[in-house]
Amino acid sequence: MKAYFRIMTVLAVVTLSAAPALADLWNVNDNISYTLSNAVWTPYGYGGLFTITDVDTGAVIETFCLELNEHISQNDRVAGISDSASLGGRGGGSPDPISSATDWLYTQFVYGNAAYSNGSALQIAFWILEQEVTAAEASSWFNAGLLATATSYLTEAKLHTGSYGTQVLNLKDDISDAPHQSQLFHPVPEPATMLLLGIGLIGLAGYGRKKLFKK
Question: pTM to 2 decimals?
Answer without folding.
Answer: 0.80
